């Protein structure tokens, strides 16, 4: 399976996007998905997409429409719906 690239974003590109990125790395490891996860501020999405290919944007904030699929990952922060979100991520990256 080819390596997958995920951009984890939040308002400041700091702690929250890092928490989401760590969750995605853990999920992918458990499901045998080779993944590289980068973090960024939501306002940096356009420039990041210009410089690198991403298969998925994992967001902890509102994101403008983009050509890359965006998945709301607030469940990783609240714990509500976390299992369903995990399944969606696995399906999106396989």
What would the keywords be for this entry?
about 90 residues, alpha/beta, Rossmann fold, four-stranded parallel beta sheet, 4 helices, globular
Count of alpha and pi helical runs: 4
Instruction: Kindly report the oligomeric state of this protein.
Output: single chain
Task: Supply Rg.
Answer: 12 Å
- What's the domain count? 1
CATH topology: Rossmann fold
The largest sheet, given as strand count, sense and whether it forms a barrel, is: 4 strands, parallel
Structure write-up:
By secondary structure, this protein is α/β, with parallel strands linked by helices. The chain has a single domain (4-93), classed as Response regulator (Rossmann fold, 3-Layer(aba) Sandwich). The protein has helices at 15-30, 45-51, 75-78, 82-93, and strands at 4-10, 35-41, 56-59, 70-72. Strands 2-1-3-4 form a 4-stranded parallel beta sheet, with helices on one face. α1 (15-30) links the parallel β1 and β2 (35-41). It is globular. The N and C termini lie close together (8 Å). The model has no long low-confidence stretch (mean pLDDT 94).
Summarize this structure briefly.
By secondary structure, the chain is an alpha/beta fold. The protein is built from 4 helices and 4 strands; from the N terminus they run E-H-E-H-E-E-H-H.
Secondary structure topology:
Elements: E1 4-10, H1 15-30, E2 35-41, H2 45-51, E3 56-59, E4 70-72, H3 75-78, H4 82-93
Parallel strand pairs: 1-2, 1-3, 3-4
């Amino acid at each position: 399976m080819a390596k997958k690239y995920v951009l984890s974003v939040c308002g400041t590109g700091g702690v929250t996007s890092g928490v989401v990125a760590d969750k995605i790395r853990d999920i992918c490891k458990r499901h045998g998905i080779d993944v590289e996860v980068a973090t960024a501020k939501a306002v940096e999405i356009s420039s990041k997409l210009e410089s690198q290919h991403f298969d998925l944007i994992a967001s902890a904030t509102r994101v403008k429409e983009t050509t890359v699929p965006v998945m709301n990952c607030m469940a990783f922060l609240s714990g509500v719906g976390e299992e369903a979100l995990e399944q969606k991520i696995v399906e999106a990256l396989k």
